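User: Please predict the structure of the protein below. I'd like the answer in C-alpha cell form so I can feed it into my own downstream comparison script.

Assistant: Understood. Taking the following sequence of 151 residues as input:
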Amino acid sequence: MKYSRRRLLGVLWLLLLAFLGFLLLRSCGSDRTAAAATNEQRVAYLNSLGWQVEPEPVETLSLTLPKELEEPYQSYNVLQRAQGFELEPCCGKTVERCTYTVKNHPSGKVCQADLYICGGEIVAGDILCTGEGGFIAPLAFPKDACAPPFP
C-alpha cells in the first residue's frame, strides 16, 4: 500500500493535535492542588467550589497512608483520580484530614466535606453524606441534586 506524502502529513498532524489535547486535559486535571496550610485557605478552597461550610472543622485528624495503596484506599483513589488528585505520592506519609459541615448540599441532606492535606496542599477530598441513602461524591458542586453519586 502506498501513502501520499500529503495524507501522511495529515495523519501526523491529527496525532499531534490529539497528543496536545491529551496534555491540555491532563494539565487541567492535575491543577487541583491548592494551598491548605491554614484553616482559612481550606475554607476558601471549598467556597471556591461552591460549598458553604461551617468555618471551623468538626474534626481534624492525622493518619499515615500505607507505603502501597490497598483497599479501601485503591477504590478511594479512583474517585480522587477522577477529580484530578492522586494519593500515591503521599504513600508512607502522614496526611491530615479536615472535616467540615456542608450547609448547602442541593439534596438537603446533612453532608460533610473531607479534605486530605499533605505537605500543606490538598491531595484528596470528598463530599460524604451518611445515614439512609448516604453516598460519597467528588468535591465538585453538583449541578443536579439527583445526579448519581460515586459508586
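That's the full C-alpha cell string. The CA atoms of residues 35 and 57 lie 17 Å apart.
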